[in-house]
Design a protein that fits this description.
The chain is mainly beta. The protein has one helix and 17 strands.
Length: 172
């Protein structure tokens, strides 16, 4: 089965229900999308008035990649949803992802492993590591902070006076 439509600078083409190609060429948006359901999707959008662009592709269920014109980049493995659905992807995919990486425009980078059982966040001046229920480590130009078992044991050198934490309540 084949279909083609062109109206008001918008074009759509499909072959059976599995391949779909969509494009739009207006003053506000230039977009091209390809879908091979449910395995592959590719979307590129350009906004001429603002100079912004957006690139998104997904090989379902293996990997998802997204990059915008500001310089934000993200990708993750094990993608649950076969098409782009940002709010659902942001909410549910971290639970099932094996590797998740984000590079933000402010220079911050984030790495999450195995359903965020290991989280690392860093910039040029700061480093944070988080392992839920086990350990948290923060290092910056001021010093470092380490907590074990959510503060059961810990040390903080970021304050003017170094402090040691013991059994959640006692600070030495």
């Amino acid at each position: 089965m084949y279909g083609y439509s062109y109206f008001a600078n918008k074009e759509a083409e499909f072959i059976t229900p599995f391949y779909i190609s969509l494009s739009q060429n207006t003053n506000h948006l230039k977009a091209k999308s390809y879908f091979v359901f449910p395995i592959f999707s590719h979307m590129k959008q350009e906004y001429p008035g603002t100079g912004r662009d957006d690139l998104y592709w997904k090989v379902w269920p293996i990997v998802r990649y997204h990059k915008d014109s500001e310089g934000n980049t993200s990708w993750n493995t094990v993608s649950l949803i076969p098409v782009r659905f940002e709010s659902m992807e942001d909410m549910w995919e971290p639970i099932f992802s094996i590797i998740e990486y984000k590079k933000l425009v402010n220079g911050e980078k984030r790495l999450h492993l195995i359903s965020r059982l290991y989280t690392q966040r860093w910039t040029e001046s700061e480093f944070n590591l988080h392992i839920p229920l086990l350990a948290e480590y923060k290092k910056s130009e001021k010093g470092f902070k380490y907590d074990f078992l959510y503060g059961f044991l810990g040390i903080d050198t970021q304050k003017e006076k170094n402090t040691f934490k013991l059994i959640w309540l006692i600070e030495i």
